[in-house]
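Chain A, query sequence.
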Amino acid sequence: MTKAFHSSGDVIADRRAGYARMLAEAGDHAAAADLLVQALEIVPDWAAGWDLLGSYHEKAGHVAGAISAWRHLEALDDEGVFGAGLKLAAHGAGRAAEGTAVSYVEALFDQYAPQFEQALVERLGYRVPEMLDELVRQEMALLGIEHFARALDLGCGTGLMGQHLRGKADYLEGIDVSAAMIAETARKGIYDSLQKAELVAALNARRADADLVTAADVFIYCGALAPVLAALVPAMRPGGLAAFSLEAHDGPEPQFLRPSLRYAHGVDATRDALVVAGLEILRFETAVLRFDRGAPITGMLIVARRPPVELNAANDGEDGGDVAA
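Chain A, predicted structure.
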């Protein structure tokens, strides 16, 4: 998805950029790029223009041109709002920074919020909240859990996951990095509390109070899974459940950045990361999460448990270690 159009501050440059956008919408991305180059000759420090130019080059199949545009963008965008570093890394021209590109993700979903549900559910066939909810429901039945005292929905967005959790939790919290997403879901009255925060920081600020933590298509923006799990496990009560989705790949890499700027995680590496984090794997399934440009995106649906106190005590007696780090 491209960024919303931002004025360059120059009328002539804006007019040329507007014509370029019309050409792009008509499918002539090469001509759109040519016209946008003319606009950038007038306003060479226009970050949004370089972002659009990179997008037009990429869609025209001119990867070298896209990389050049994103290098210009990277030099102008100190906060990383346009995700130039991610785009360069996804095309083999750089290395993604560790962790979530917070400014990029925040800007992306601030822009995306008004049409989020229509785009994701109606056009892309997104069903991750329903699928995760079904797995949680099955585990509740197997474990004899009637309800959760406190549930935490990470990356709550517009409440697509939360609406399934509402009847299962006495107290339901939502956390999202995007203020616009928080505003959209606040209108629905699904959550008992909502917080705008980066998820790892939010998890690190709490200790062992969540019976259930969910993250529907959230960790796909976080890169390495281990630091996320290291923050997640201490935020859960012993015996608490975590349910989340990841995009999957079958290679040896723990994760890699796709051109979509979402991370795909290795299946085997993910299993290992869960075990190292001290989680007990209850469900680990693969499924089609959504469609992207008509192609199915395969992912993992996972339900894991922080071992209950009695399991920790038993293990402590055997080897002196603490299973739930």
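The chain has 14 helices and nine strands. The radius of gyration is 22 Å.
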